[in-house]
Amino acid sequence: xxxxxxxGIGNWGRNLAQNFYDLKALAGVADLSLDLREKxxxxxxxxxxYKDYRDVLETDIPAIVLATPxxxxxxxxxxxxxxxxxxxxxxPMTLKAQEAKELAELAxxxxxxxxxxxxxxxxxxxxxxxxxxxxxxxxxxxHVLTQRAKLGRxxxxxxxxxxxxxxxxxxxLDLLGNPTLKxxxxxxxxxxxxxxxxNVHVDMTFATDQTAHIHVSWYHPLLQRCTxxxxxxxMLFYDEVTQKVTVYxxxxxxxxxxxxxxxxxxxxxxxQPLKLECQxxxxxLETRQQPRSNGWNGVAIVEILEKAQEVMRG
Length: 314
What we know:
Layout: E1 4-7, H1 11-22, E2 26-30, H2 34-43, E3 48-50, H3 53-57, E4 63-66, H4 73-82, E5 86-90, H5 97-110, E6 114-117, H6 124-134, E7 141-151, H7 160-175, E8 181-189, E9 199-206, E10 211-217, E11 219-231, E12 235-239, E13 244-252, E14 258-265, H8 273-287, H9 295-312
Parallel strand pairs: 1-2, 1-4, 2-3, 4-5, 5-6, 7-10
Antiparallel strand pairs: 7-11, 8-9, 9-10, 11-12, 12-13, 13-14
């Protein structure tokens, strides 16, 4: 059944459209660009084309997938929910925590599915680590460290924190069991453009006394995307570039002695996370279950993004 219209078919929107088309769920696409609409018509035969987003709201198609610029998310998601549509919106959910809360509350009031595109929560390696930590074999998780850095496309409408960090904040919260934030420290350096931070470090302490550190940069010589988990009995390292998870049987005992019993590689599935994410949204449309990355998950992430920026800029 064709259930979704993808709104915004730029670089990432095309990926979403392709996956929903492959899942036989793509009813149409909407974009202001005639060129992009014509390319979509050629790539996805039989779909409907829309120039005006408001025209989509008048259809009986039940769900909208938004891959538009972040500043438009609040207005477009709100309009879709008020029109009775289920919504998948790319990260970040909004640029203000209060706006994110408004949308999460509206989705509940309207009894609609609201899902945020926190892609890494559907990455098989992250799912494997989440499930492994729940077994207790690694012991209590004490600290999570993430790094997302490369010499990348520099933006002027947002800094690297808002561009890269939604991925890492979502992973940190997920692996720690979604604890409440207690305090946050942040520093950023604008090296290329005044007022647009290119390199950011953020430290978080949670009500559980667990901690996390996030480093993001688009002005960096190497491509580094990784997550390190320090637990009481073991340590885990995930290299997102190679899609490998290593479990280290290393710790320090009560006598401050180093215990090192080697390491082993996890057997992680290779399914593309975007396909899993899109399928999860379709499953939620069918069952009416709450998505893993629902509106309130989006709120928690935007709150941390907003607080870190406030601290960073004094």
